[in-house]
Each structure stands twice: as structure tokens, then as C-alpha cells.
Amino acid sequence: MRAMGELLKTQGFILGCWIVLFIVFSGLGLGVRRLFKLKLEHLGSLLHAFWLGWALAIGILQIWHLAFKINAYALLLLSVLGLSGWLGQRRELWELVKPSRAFTLLQLCLLLLFGFWLANQAIGPIRTYDTLRYHITAVKWFSTYPLVPGLANLYSNLGNNQSFFLYGALLNVGPWFQKSHHLATGLLVLVLGWRIVLSMITLIRGRGKVPPEDLFYSLLLAPLLNFIFFSGYIPGLTPDAPVYVLNIVLGAESLQFLNEQPVSSRQTVYRLFYMVVLGIVGITIKLSYVVFGFLTITIVVGAWLAHTSYRIMLKRRVLLLLAGTMAAFLLPWCIRGVLLSGYLAYPQPTLSLPVSWRTPAAIAVQELDAIRGWARQPGAEWRQALKGWAWFVPWVKRMTENSDLIKPLELCVFGLLSALVQRRELKKTAGLLFCIPAAAAILFWFFSAPDPRFLGSLLWILGAGIIVWGLEGLKSQEMPSGKMLNLAVVFWVFLYIYPFHNPLMYKYPFDSPLLIRPYNATQALHPVAEAQYDTRMTDSQLAVNIAEQEMCTWDVPLPCTYDGKFYRGLRLRVPGDLRSGFVLDWP
What we know:
This protein is mainly alpha-helical. It is 61% helix and 3% strand. It has a three-stranded mixed beta sheet with strand order 1-2-3, with no helix packed on it. A two-stranded antiparallel ribbon has the order 4-5. The longest helix has 34 residues, at 2-35. The protein starts with a helix and ends with a strand.
């Protein structure tokens, strides 16, 4: 009973922290909505505001970290900005959730119930190897110092310039110091889950038109549950998780935009701004997002230009706004990349600057080859996969055994067949435009690093999008038969996907990923084990702590690396000052 009480207390505390963070980030988004003079129509608008605010917070942290470490003061700044956004729209928010609206209260209860269960998933141990290897170390650096030049010389993976670790460092304060991995990813999955729950409610009620994005979100319920149970990303700090989520959110927004143009010019410009922000922040989180993010932005902006009747001068103003928004995110990101490694897009060895701390090109090439080779052929022989196509047949065999790859492919086929049946009723241009970013990103994935982990949610997006396109012709349904068809398809997809990973198949509840056991009777959170390390001296007499456990540096004091990344030519730019950065004298 004591352990259960501690478990429930911890889950409630996690959910409470998530709600506070939701208020902060959605407040940032509400402030921007107010600048566009937009009203809150429903709870979905509030979730819109969250994603916009969260992305803007990443942009602010990129600039902040150039001069200051990410600490409680950064969180305080964002909290003040967020609360000001709520105060500016307090009347509309009250109208949205006032007690007289019983159905809204029922929605809130369902959302809180989902959040309380998800908090249980967040208490578990870290299961992602890279989080133990260098993600926690990156958060530690960002929480301890302003951006340190040449970190890639100390530990090459720290040069990847992934802005998600700024968010992890933001939460690395107070009771969550060195525990931010229990909060960071879970919050994003929580808000995505809330959106799916609201879409399912809209689909079931079926009053009036059901927007294509609601059917799209509803089809992704089973993939989201599989992601929660089996990805190992909750808890964790892997950038693959926010990319997985952002792909879905941006895909749903572009689907809606391409098929139902907003009724007002302000709403149109706001949604373009919203999609540009999501597309660009994804690139700063992980470089492989560039194809999906950039193509989505290009297509929605191009569609707007092709169909809008705005005056040329107004079009130019909107385009300047969007271009300025992209620059506001990408310019600090590029500066960060140069400071971390000397490269704009490390580990790509091109586009470097001749700074003293630039990581040797040989190390950058080795990192890039390791990513490509291991994705094609994991194991000790990954270098052989860099030459020719001998890796392809074994790769195909592995992929055919991966249900997370096969199931969305089968959904794509089902959607295409249904599209052929209704080919005369389809909005062919809109459907094809929606499919282009995901299809192009999948091709880029195959030719660059075809590991299913790097694919994220792209195949699910493509499959769900094609089904929406094929069954509904990307049109909203008003007839009862249309409602029943939507529900039938969503239910069939859920049953088709979910049994392959059903956690209820386990004999005992706590042996299932459905529920996570508390660590012990007095502590629900599963701690990170203490790391073992030794200390070595470089030629410049710089003491570097070397992890002894399979390259994992999670709990090793700074500066740290592992044996394969230790270079005797490493030195500080200013002796005795870690903040000054690292230079590597390469032979």
C-alpha cells in the first residue's frame, strides 16, 4: 500500500507539472494569437497555442543560451511571458471552460484521465541507449554553462546541434534536477494524445462537418499507443520523439489547410505562420527533419499564393513575415552549430568556418559514415555497408519482420485502393500535395540512414493521409452514413494495428507496459544508475573523465567522454576555463 500511495502521489505530481508547463507554453502561443486578433473557438485552439508557444520557447532558448546557461531564470522568463498571454485572453478562456458547459467538463475529465495514466509511463527507467550515452550529458552542459565552443572536440555527438536538449535543460531545475527526462518527452506526447482524444470525440458526436484533420488524428490512435508502450522514449530525451510528434502535428495542419482554406485573412496568415514555425523548429531539433519540414512549408505557402486574391503588396508583407520567422530560428541555430563544432550542419563536413575550435573533418566524416553504415547494417560490420548494395537484401529481410514498418505500408495500400474506387470524387491536387512531403522524406531516409528509428511517424502520416484522401475525398461528411463510415474505418484500423503490440496480452498487469511498477516502496521514479569512470590527462594536462560503461556518460562529471572519443591533443582555449571551449590539435 505504501508503494501504491507513493506511485499515485508521483503520478499526480508529474501530471501537475505537465499542466503547469502546458499553461506556460500555451500562454506564449495565446500571446501570438492575440497579435493576430484571433479568438479561441474550442479546446483544439488551445492545443494549437501550445505547439506554437513550445516552438517559440525553443527559439528563445537558442538565443538565451548564447550568453547564459539554461536555468531557473530562463524558466521564469518564459513563465512570465506565458502568464501574460493567458491574462490577455482570460475572458475567452472562461467562456471556453465555464462550468455551465457540461460537455466541456466531460472532455476535460477524459484529458486528465489520459494524462494521469501517461504519468505512470513517465516514471520508468531510461530505455534509450543514446539518452544514457550523451543526451543527459548535453543537458548537463547546457544547464551548467552558456554555449561552450568546441564541445564536439570533447565528445563528437555533442556537436549535433539538437535544440531539444535546450528544452531538457529548461526542465532540469528544482525537484527535477537531473530528472528532466521524466517530464520532457511525456509533455509532448500528452498534448498529442489530448488532440487525438478530442478528435475521437468530434468523430463520435458527428454533428455537422467532421474536418479531415479530426479523421486523420483519430486514425493515429493505435500508432500513438504503440509509441507510448514500445518506443522506449518515455521517459527519455531523444530528439527522435519530438520529431515523431511534430511530423504528425504539422501533417494534420497542412492536411486541413490544403482542403479547407480559413475563412478570414488573419486566420490564413496565422496558420501559415504556425506551420512555418513548426516546420523550422523541427529542423533545429534534428537535421533529418529538413525534407518534411521544408517541403511542407513550400507546398502550403505555394498553395496559398496560387489561390489567394490578396493584393501584391499584402502578399509581400506576408512573405516577409514568414521569411523573417524562418531566419529568427535558423540564424541562431547556425551560430550554435558553428560554436559547437565549426560546421553549420555537423556532421556534414561541408559548410564549415575557419574557427580555431573547428572539429577535424576526419572526425565529422567518421560520424556521418557511422550513422549511415549502422542504419544499413547494424553491428561490427557496418563499414562494409558504405560500399555498394550488398547490405540491401539483409536490410529488406529485417524490415519485413518489423510490424511498425509493414503495418503503415499496408495502410497506404488500403488507402490507395479506396482512392481508386472514388477517383472521380477526389480532390486530386490537394491529396497529392499532402503526400509529397512525407513521400520525399521517406525517400531521403532510405538513401541516407534507413533505420526504422529515424523514420519516425512518416509512414503512419502517409498511410493515414491516403486513407482520409481515399475514403472521404478530403471532404467533410454531413450524412449519417459518412459518420458511420468514418467510425468504421477508424475502428478497423485500430483493431488491425493494435493486437500486434497489445500490452493486455501479458499475464500479470505489472509485467505489461500498460502499467509501470514504482521503483520501491519509498520512491516511484526509477533512478539512473551511478556511472563508473576514471580520469585521464591530455597532453595539455587537461583532466577528462572517461566513462567505463559502454560509452555511456550520463552521470560522469564534466568534462567527460568515453574511451573511443578521448584525444590526447584536446586542450582548453583558455587554460583552466571550461567555459572558454575546447580545441583539438589533430595530427
